[in-house]
Amino acid sequence: MSLFWTIWISVITLIVVIGCAILLRLTSRNDTGVPEGEPMPHTFDGIQEMNNPLPKWWVGLFWFTIVIAVIYSFAFPTFTANYNGLLNWTSSEQSVMNPEESAELAKTSQSQYQREMNAADDKFGAVFKELAYQPSGEYKDLTLIAKDPEAVKVGQRLYLQNCAQCHGSDARGSKGFPNLTDDDWLYGGEAETIKATIMHGRNGVMAAWKDVLGGDQGVTEVASYVLQLSGRRVNAIEAQAGEEKFVICAACHGADGKGNHALGAPNLTDKIWLYGGSRKAVEDTIANGRNGVMPAWAKVLGEDKVHLISAFVYSLSQEK
Fold first, then answer.
1. What predicted TM-score, i.e. pTM, was given to this entire model?
2. What pLDDT does 129 receive?
3. What SS3 state is found at 108?
4. Closest by CA position to 132, among listed 317, 301, 294
5. Distance between CA 184 and CA 317 in Å, rounded?
């Protein structure tokens, strides 16, 4: 956090706490010249106000909250990201990159998150191993785990905790995030390929071709040809011109436009579009390119959990 934001947050926090204390002190004083419990020398809408003090229990409770706010501000990392407080407490350890580091750090760290994660691993780690491993100590075949209802339930829970933010709770994805239930895979839908994708991540790059294709007209022509491949009705003259230019695209998508799993190049002949299938969306993809990143989860979750998530994801497309 920059020095500016450090000062900004600190000053605002102090102003609020000190302001509450001053306001409480002023409203607790009797400066009216009228004894407490006596009528005030004015009325409002026919109602005469009484000089009644604030309840002592309420004033005491308010002073208590102010004192607690001051103590909390110095005990915990309230002001800045660089200040861990007098108790050296943190909600998480941002430096942790894998389960081994997490387990080691949890022995000495004040991080509540790390302690909870370590306790959960101790409790459920044996369950993960029982579901993921054979008696010989090797991983069970993913296709067999995908048929085990208990293992699939565990994989589903892990999916919901870690993958649903992008792919949705129903795994049907959204714009820019693949649908995992339709058996249409950029890198292949085999069980081990899915596991490799989750373990190591993917970085899919679609280059921007507007300048290479000669501007907007070239983009329009190639878009017409691509839309024609998926069965859409388009301008035949544009599509013919786009077919000639498609040779540039064929290096990744293939001469028939059916894609290439080795490169993560999508099939252009079906009606499944990762970034939208409207003409505008297709033209935008061709003109400006795309860059899709699937993060690697091996160091975050560990291979046991990834193995179970992979089996669950594989099972989704096998139901079709």
1. 0.67
2. 87
3. coil
4. 301
5. 9
